[in-house]
Design brief:
- The complex is a heterodimer of chains A (about 140) and B (about 160).
- Chain A is mostly helical and about 140 residues long.
- Chain A is built from 4 helices and no strands.
- Chain A is elongated.
- Chain B is mainly α and about 160 residues long.
- Chain B has 2 domains: about 40 residues, no CATH class; about 100 residues, Alpha-Beta Plaits (2-Layer Sandwich).
- Chain B has 5 helices and 3 strands, in the order H-H-H-E-H-E-E-H.
- Chain B has a 3-stranded antiparallel β-sheet.
- Chain B is elongated.
- Classes of the chains: A mainly alpha (about 140), B mainly alpha (about 160).
C-alpha cells in the first residue's frame, strides 16, 4: 500500500459511501414521512441496506487489505434481519392500541385506522387469541 | 439418535452460528460448538413442543429470493423517500388472508413482509387467519395483497409442510 491505491480500497470506499447514503436516506425518511406507520418503513428497509453495505465493506477490508477472513459481519446481518421486523411489529401494535383507545396524542395518519379483518374477529392487539390458535395458552 | 438430538436442525444451526461467532476454524472450536449444539437443544426441549417440518432446498432458494428483494426494496423505498411528495403518497392498511397455518410459517411470512418492498406487517388477527400489513405506497391495495401472497406465501407453503 505504498503509493497508489489498491482496487480493494476503492471497493471498500464505494461500499462505505453507498451504505452511508442509504443510512442517511432512511433517517431522512423518519423526518419527512407524514405519520408513525409511514416512518416505520425507513428504518426497516433503507437502513438495512445501509448497514449491509458497511458490513460488506468490512468483510472486503479484512479479506483483501489485512488478509484475514472474518465472519462476524454475517452474524450481525442475521441478527439485524431477525430483530428489525420484530421491533417494527411491536411499535405498530402499540400504535394500533393507542389509536383504538382514541388517545389524542396519537394521530392516525393518512391511512387511518385499520378495519377488523372479518365479522366476529378482531386483531390480536385488541382481542385474546381464539381457541385452537398458536397463541392460545389453554389449548397448547 | 432422537434422544440425543431432539432437534437436529437446531443443533446444526447452533454449531454453524458458533463457528461464525468464534471466527476460527480449528478442532477445538468445532468441538466446543458441537457440545453446545447437543447440550442446548437437550435443555431447551421442553419449550419446543412441536417441531416444524421444513424442506431445506426450497428454504435456501427462498432466502436468496428475499435477500434480492431486500436490495430492490431499499432502492424503491429510498426513491419514495427522496422524490415522492407526501401528497402523492397513498399509504394503506392491507388485510392479507392467510393460507399458512403453523406459527413458524406465519412468523417467517410476517418478517419477510416487513423486510421487503414498501410493506410492514403490523398485527395478526385473533383467529390467526389474517395478517394486518401497512403499505407505504399502495394505490391498488388488492394487487399488493395478491403480490405478497403469490411471491412469498406460495413459496412458504412448499417449505413448511
Amino acid at each position: 500500500m505504498t503509493g497508489g491505491v489498491s482496487l480493494a480500497e476503492v471497493v471498500v470506499s464505494a461500499l462505505i459511501v453507498l451504505g452511508g447514503a442509504f443510512a442517511l436516506i432512511g433517517s431522512w425518511g423518519l423526518v419527512r414521512l407524514p405519520s408513525l406507520m409511514e416512518r416505520l418503513h425507513g428504518p426497516t428497509k433503507a437502513t438495512t441496506l445501509g448497514l449491509g453495505g458497511i458490513l460488506v465493506a468490512s468483510i472486503v477490508w479484512f479479506q483483501f487489505v489485512r488478509g484475514e477472513w472474518t465472519t462476524h459481519e454475517l452474524l450481525v446481518s442475521v441478527f439485524l434481519f431477525v430483530t428489525a421486523p420484530i421491533s417494527a411489529n411491536m411499535i405498530a401494535k402499540v400504535h394500533l392500541l393507542r389509536l383504538r383507545q382514541g388517545d389524542a396524542s396519537e394521530p392516525g395518519g393518512p391511512a387511518g385506522e385499520p378495519l377488523p379483518p372479518a365479522a366476529g374477529v378482531d386483531w390480536a392487539t385488541h382481542e385474546a387469541p381464539q381457541l385452537g390458535t398458536p397463541g392460545d395458552l389453554e389449548g397448547d | 439418535m432422537n434422544r440425543l438430538l431432539p432437534h437436529p436442525g437446531l443443533s446444526a444451526l447452533l454449531v454453524a452460528m458458533w463457528m461464525v461467532m468464534v471466527n476460527d476454524i480449528s478442532f477445538g472450536s468445532l468441538f466446543l460448538g458441537i457440545v453446545i449444539g447437543i447440550v442446548v437443544p437437550l435443555f431447551t426441549a421442553p419449550w419446543w413442543p412441536g417441531r416444524p417440518h421444513v424442506r431445506f432446498a426450497p428454504g435456501i432458494a427462498y432466502v436468496g429470493l428475499v435477500l434480492w428483494d431486500i436490495i430492490i426494496a431499499n432502492f424503491e423505498v429510498a426513491a419514495i423517500i427522496l422524490f415522492k411528495p407526501n401528497r402523492d403518497l397513498r399509504p394503506a392498511w392491507l388485510t392479507v388472508p392467510l393460507d399458512l397455518t403453523t406459527p413458524e410459517a406465519i412468523t417467517v411470512f410476517a418478517g419477510t413482509i416487513s423486510l421487503t418492498p414498501g410493506t410492514v406487517s403490523a398485527d395478526v388477527s385473533a383467529c390467526g387467519k389474517y395478517l394486518l400489513v401497512h403499505a407505504l405506497h399502495a394505490p391498488e391495495p388488492g394487487a399488493e395483497v395478491a403480490k405478497v401472497k403469490a411471491r412469498y406465501e406460495s413459496r412458504l407453503m412448499r417449505i413448511f409442510v
